[in-house]
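Project channel, design review

CF: Before we commit to the Neoasaia chiangmaiensis constructs, I'd like one complete example in the thread so the newer folks can see what an input/output pair looks like. Taking Sugar ABC transporter permease.
RD: sounds good, go ahead.
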Amino acid sequence: MAIKRSRSHGLAIGALGWLVAIWIFFPIFWMFITGFKTEVEAISTPPHLIFRPTLDSYREVFERANYWHFTFNTVAISVGATAVALTLSIPAAYAMAFLPNKRTRGTLLWMLSTRMLPPVGVLVPIYLIARNTHLLDTLTGLAIVDMLTNLPIVVWMLYTFFREVPVPILEAGRMDGANRWQEITVVLLPLALPGIASTGLLSLILCWNEAFWSLNLTSSNAAPLAAFIASFSSPEGLFFGKLSAASTLAVAPILVFGWLSQKQLVRGLTFGAVK
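CF: and here is what came back for Sugar ABC transporter permease:
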């Protein structure tokens, strides 16, 4: 009886999980099929589930905008911001995890609180700083903003992962003559590699999906895929077929990347305190 009840409970949880997954995935599926419709079919009511697929929307998207230019900008900004964020966060998280003082907890909470600040609240000062330092509409300027935006999350995640590393292992390294640099690079980083990898993947995804700063700090030279999508929202009205085709092209690389790296991401997230 208990086994039958447990099996029913498991089936119910599984069914609920599938319903939630379908609910989350449905907008992506709808965007994908709408990209293969004509503009008339895309706005028809009730919507057509059976239609003749066409590549007209994709053809117009490629004729109207340089997709590869936007993709290159997005990759350069995301990889650059993530690399710098990890470089700065590893020593900071190490100091907070293994050399804490009375201000460590307050510093961590303050860093996390900056993520709760609405970006529009600091739009004017950051825009003026970028303009006066000639970083407006540059890859460097947007990469710096994305890096600073995600830095608190990166430090927090690395801090929790480093806290999982047994201190006696680091002490054994010191007894063998390892200095601080060797302790971090030879002992700590290999042990925390799954956590560092998952943190880097998450930062990469956040940078890829960032839209607010992309739309306000870039125009053409450094515009990423978020601006590519927004360019198909014209004053004459929304063209859902072309907008869906552009959105599919913009999210496809990061979806494939997330799908391929999901095992590494889950392994890393279950390594530390984020369980």
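RD: helpful, thanks. The longest strand covers residues 233-234.
CF: The chain has one domain: 55-271.
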